[in-house]
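Let's practice the habit of predicting before peeking. Look at the sequence and jot down your guess about where helices and strands might fall. Then scroll down.
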Amino acid sequence: MIVLGVDTSTPATVVGLRLADGTVLQARDDPQPGQRPGHSTRLLPFAHQLLAEASLGWDCLERIGVGVGPGTFTGLRIGIATARALAQSLDVELMGVSSLRALAHGTGEARRDMTPGAEPVRVLAAIDARRGEVFVAGYDGERRRLAARAASPNRVGELLEDALIDTTAEEWIAVGDGALLYRDSFEQLGLRVPADGSESHRIQAYSICALAIESPENGVGRAVVPDYLRRPDVEVSLEGVA
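Done guessing? Here is the structure:
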């Protein structure tokens, strides 16, 4: 199956093209700190670039996968609106994928590539939610152990305990920009946080493509909508002004 996968839940713009033989081409833009995300200007050009690289036309796409968050309001709105428009104009299937699940999936795939036959990795995926919070979800291989939610770093330990996750008895890895931002808090909970430059902290396009085919969480035919987990920042700001 030929799948176009996109994610704009974080400042990065991530686009992947999965070919019929399983090969995945990827293009991404990771803005430097302080730079504005380039979702609106990069998304479609990246998709066009990958199709041209594979010598394919838009009409060859069979499915589109899009990260539905949680993440930034503006990024999710741009990514999902673009994916919807493409799917409708091309008359192809559209699949929503949890961005946290994709983040964890990439970590597991990287570990299996480095250590064939390794046990499934236990991953706490953490995306910076701003306002001093993180969006987190916990995965033990293919099994979700902690449902996605927004919480302050100080509450993550409580969430792990409620989910019966014991980091002293099981090895857990925390990945994502949220794990980097609150590294000290996560490591105090017994979570291992890879080095800052590790690819594990970035959502990978091949994960969006793979989950768009395999994931049962958001089946084909369901409405693909942003998973904000909480109200957008602008609503809270306006409420304070009123």
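How did you do? The first strand starts at residue 3 and ends at 7.
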